[in-house]
Every structure is written in C-alpha cells, then in structure tokens.
Design a protein that fits this description.
This protein has helices at 14-19, 30-43, 47-50, 60-63, 127-132, 136-142, 195-201; strands spanning 54-55, 74-86, 91-101, 107-117, 123-125, 149-157, 171-177, 186-191, 213-222, 231-239. It is α+β, with helices and mostly antiparallel strands. β9 and β10 (231-239) form a beta hairpin.
C-alpha cells in the first residue's frame, strides 16, 4: 500500500530545517557584542593586541607610530550614541561617546565607532580616532601647510562667520569637534558660493546648519587670499560618514 501524502502535515526534511532553524537558536545582539569589543579594545596596551580588531586605511607598521601603540588614559564612561544601518552594504555602525580621564583629572570627550560588516566580527574604526584623539587634526590646524588632507571628524556648521578672516561676509564657519556640544578642536571656513556652500543650500544633501554630523572632510590652508591672514578652508565634504 502506498503512503498517502497529507498536505496539512509539515515537511520535516533536513532541507527544510536548514531554511527554518530551530526556534531555540540563540539571537545575537550585535550592539552588546560591539560594546564588549570596544571595552576590551580600550584596555589593550599596544597595536599588536589591537590590530586584529581594527578597521583602517593604514598598515600595521604605520599604526605602530600612533597613540594606538600605547595605553590609553582611564575611561571614565562609555555611552551609546547612535546606531546606523546600511542594509545594501550589510553594515551596522555603532557610535559611542567615550570619556577619557586625563592625569590632571580633566575629562577628554571623544566619539568612537565600531563597525559590523556582514557576518564578520565587529571592528573598531580607528582613522577618525587618530584624527581626533590622536591629534592629527589639531597638528594640521596649528600652522599653515602647503598640502591639503582628508580628516574624519564631527562637524557643526554655522550660518555666519564672525572671525577675522578675509571676506568674512561671504563665508560660513564650520566647527570641527571630537563630539557634539564640546569645544571645537579647530574652526574652518567655506564660501557661501563654494561647492560646500552649495551643498548646504540643497535639502537632499543631508547637511544642515546647527546639526552635528560625523563627516569626511578635505581641508587646506588658504594662504593666497590674504597671506597675512591664512585660514583653514573646507574644500569638500566627501561623505557624511566615517568610511575608510
């Protein structure tokens, strides 16, 4: 006698189990994993320990010459900032506010990013950390330089320019921060009619006056407009994120 198929009976074949795993499979909270990685990362002592957990455009030998090859100050507090998901690229970005306690007791507020790509383990995105905490931006902004550079920072644009720079009535000010609502590391400027100025005039650009954003900037020193009053100029906002 041939068995009779019952269409109401569920298919319990192995193939179906692969497509529908048992309900008791553990659910991974990627936010928890990302925070645990950041906490461990901040306790590590050198690049050798940190390198397997780093996402960067730099090579290990370059990173060995940075603050990543030393112990960090005491961490007073870590709080979650925002979580951003790019479904098309299967990327989740976890931004954190990290308060370092300097030897003087002062708090050094920073922003750090942990990124989860697809099925890979999360990594700490260190290039912006080196620009901000590592001092690369501060060094670049301290004196005029003949070459421009890209930096990954927090920006806060203002709709006016009050500083003593050439043709200030035709420019806007961009505060460059390590975290929103903190003192700026540097002030940079852009023309109202410049490429960056036109970006602010477009609602679809994602940039708005008075709104902080993680961004990738191209900065240069303008020494031509008035050599006696050089200023830091924003030539381009490449992206509103911290991709390498």
């Amino acid at each position: 006698v041939l068995p009779v198929e019952n269409p109401s009976m569920p298919d319990i074949s192995g193939a179906n189990l692969e497509q529908n795993p048992p309900m008791n499979e553990p659910i991974v909270d990627h936010g928890v994993v990302a925070l645990e990685l950041l906490e461990r990362f901040l306790e590590m002592k050198n690049v050798v320990e940190r390198f397997p957990h780093i996402e960067s455009s730099m090579k290990q030998e370059e990173l060995e010459k940075t603050v990543l090859n030393s112990e960090f100050p005491e961490v007073a507090n870590i709080t979650v900032d925002v979580r951003e998901t790019n479904a098309a690229e299967r990327v989740i970005d976890f931004y954190y506010h990290v308060d370092f306690r300097e030897p003087s007791g002062a708090i050094n507020p920073q922003t750090m990013l942990v990124r989860k790509r697809g099925e890979q383990a999360p990594k700490v995105v260190v290039d912006p950390f080196l620009d901000l905490f590592g001092g690369r931006l501060e060094k670049f902004a301290s004196e005029p330089s003949p070459l421009g550079e890209y930096f990954q920072v927090i920006i806060f644009p203002g709709a006016h320019c009050y500083e003593d720079i050439p043709n200030k009535d035709k420019k806007y000010t961009l505060k460059i921060l390590s975290r929103e609502n903190t003192d700026p590391i540097a002030l940079a400027y852009f023309g109202i009619q410049s490429k960056v100025g036109r970006m602010f005039a477009e609602e679809s650009s994602g940039i708005a006056y008075g709104q902080s954003k993680p961004s990738t900037l191209y900065l240069r020193w303008n020494t031509q407009e008035d050599p006696a009053r050089p200023y830091l100029e924003v030539m381009d906002i490449k992206a509103l994120n911290w991709n390498p």
